[in-house]
Amino acid sequence: MIEFLLEFAIELIFYGGGELLVEGVARIFGAPFGRRGRHHPIVAGIGLLLIGAVLGEVSYWVWPYRLVASGPYPGISLLISPVVNGLLTHALGTWRENHDRPRTYLSTFWGGALFAFGMAGVRFWLMGAR
Hints:
By secondary structure, the chain is mainly α. The protein has one domain. The chain has helices at 2-30, 41-62, 77-98, 109-129. Helix 2 (41-62) runs parallel beside helix 4 and helix 3 packs antiparallel against helix 4. It is flat. The relative contact order is 0.16. The mean pLDDT is 77.
């Protein structure tokens, strides 16, 4: 009887934990593309950072070379890329609002900046590892 209860408790924890993990991952990766106000902005920000990091690694495997020649300030792309991308995505969000479409977290300055920072950060880290 004790073995049955122990097995039942382990299965409950395992499957319940698995469901919570899948739900959490779905929220983190779905929140950046959902309407603002429907998801928590921190969850959306973490999702955008992670998506940018994953795409940064994918882009490294596709093109393992520097996109711009290294200048006197290595790592400057960690500052410039997020700011430029943030400004562009903010402009996209403004355009979406002006055309009666909902603004997503990705179409905000901070959303675009976090995405670009994740991507540039992983590429910078992988380039330094060579």
